[in-house]
Amino acid sequence: MKLHELSPAEGACRDSKRIGRGHGSGHGKTAGKGHKGQKARSGGGIRPGFEGGQMPLQRRVPKRGFNNIFAKNIVAINVGSLNNFEDGSIVDAAALISEGIIKNAYDGIKVLSNGKLTKKLNVKASAFSETAKQKIEEVGGKAEVI
Q1: What is the mean pLDDT of the chain?
Q2: Which residues fall within 8 angstroms of residue 89, CB to CB, at 6 or more apart?
Q3: Strands 74-78 and 142-145, sheet pairing
Q4: What's the rounded Cα separation, in Å, for the pair 126 and 91?
Q5: For the stretch 101-138, what's the b/e string if a residue is b when 16 or more beta carbons lie within 10 angstroms of its beta carbon?
Q6: Which tens digit of pLDDT belongs to each residue from 19-58?
């Protein structure tokens, strides 16, 4: 099969509807818009969600909660997942992403204390829990806040 032999499946492509091109086209005179009214006018129509003056659904349903626009999206990782690295290596956001432990650093990384660390690592993160910091330093590593 060659490129010039390719064609779309039967019935996949349809001709566009040519409106306002005379009676013979089947879409002449009012061009499929019916007789008069708001939707027949140029630029006419109503905005999405408008319900003819009735209180719209978006305003009728009760609102709950609060969305803090200043909230930071912090990624949490556990001390136990740091055992993937070799002894003595530097662990930062780029290293965690390349190792596949996290997908994105977002606004920062916080190291939590779940798990057991067996390797001496130099960990660079935005924040550490107290016990996570202790666990890293117990095995001779370094917890550095960046």
Answers
A1: 92
A2: 95, 121, 122
A3: unpaired
A4: 12
A5: beeebeeebebbbeeebebebebbbbbbbeebbebbee
A6: 999 999 999 999 999 999 999 999 989 999 999 999 999 9
For residue 59, give both structure tokens: 């305003």
10 token code pair:
């039967």
The residue to which tokens 């040519």 are assigned: 18
* Backbone angle region of 22, left / alpha / beta, with phi > 0 → left and psi within -120 to 50 → alpha: left
Tell me the C-alpha distance between 85 and 77, whole Å: 14
Token pair belonging to 34: 């019916």
Tokens of 96: 């965690």
C-alpha triplet 82, 79, 110: angle, nearest 5°: 105
Q: Per the structure block, which two tokens stand in for 27? A: 């879409």
Backbone angles phi, psi at 142, to 5 degrees: -135, 130
